Amino acid sequence: MNVVEPGSPAENLVRRVVRVLLNPIAAWDEIDVEETTIEALYRHWVAPLAAIPVVCGAIGQLGFGGYRLFGIPFHRNVFSIVVEGLVGYVLTLASVFVLAVVIDELAIQFGGERSRTQAFKLAAYSGTAGWVAGVFALLPGLGGLVVLLGMLYSLYLLYLGLPKLMRSDPARTLPFFALILVVCIGLALLISLLTSCFGGPISIY
Fold first, then answer.
1. What is each CA distance from 122 to 1, 82, 162, 164, 180, in whole angstroms?
2. For the chain, is the Cβ count within 10 Å smaller at the N or the C terminus?
3. What pLDDT is attached to residue 3?
């Protein structure tokens, strides 16, 4: 029996993920005209996909989280890993909304149109590559590189979607994107800083 039933929400999610990743221009055209709400996007897209790097990262740390310092093995306890993951997850959900607000507020300055829902679509769907690449957080070393590449591809998706969803001047897409990039970097640093505060103690084996 197929775990993902035809026409099920899971199948629709997988189909849309593949389309966003492999054919982003056509995907943005479809997303642009779709009727939806911020609540629905959170429930059916952001929440499940943003959980991928959290769950896989936690499993990866539990399985490969040990490291050595001057020949002494160290590891983190399960509780600290779970708490850090949950905090990071909540902050990620919040950051998507913050990014959408910033995009919405800046749109007019770059010849675009304001729309909180369109801006949230852009923030939500552009994060797809980074979240899906979070699967590789299961693996030490090389997995981190793949996750980084996924994040970079998410930025590319954001760049492609800006003029389509926000109706901004195509000639001004690059400065619009550059300003949003600064915001993305700031949010990422803030999330990293706050989640590290919940990292908990490190124990010796």
1. 35, 29, 7, 9, 12
2. N
3. 41
Q: Is residue 111 part of a domain?
A: yes
Task: Please provide residue 68's backbone torsions phi and psi, each rounded to the nearest 5 degrees.
Answer: -120, 140
Walk along the chain (205 residues) in steps of 10 and give the mean pLDDT of each run: 56 94 97 96 96 91 60 64 90 96 96 96 97 90 88 97 94 96 94 77 38
Residue 21: domain span: 9-204
Split into its structural domains, the chain has a count of 1
DSSP code string of 17-77: HHHHHH-HHHHHHHHHH----HHHHIIIIIHHHHHHHHHHHHHHHHHH--EEETTEEEEE-
Residue 3, domain member (yes or no): no
Cα 89 to Cα 55: distance, rounded to the nearest angstrom = 10
- Residue recorded with tokens 């779709």: 34
In a domain, 2, yes or no: no
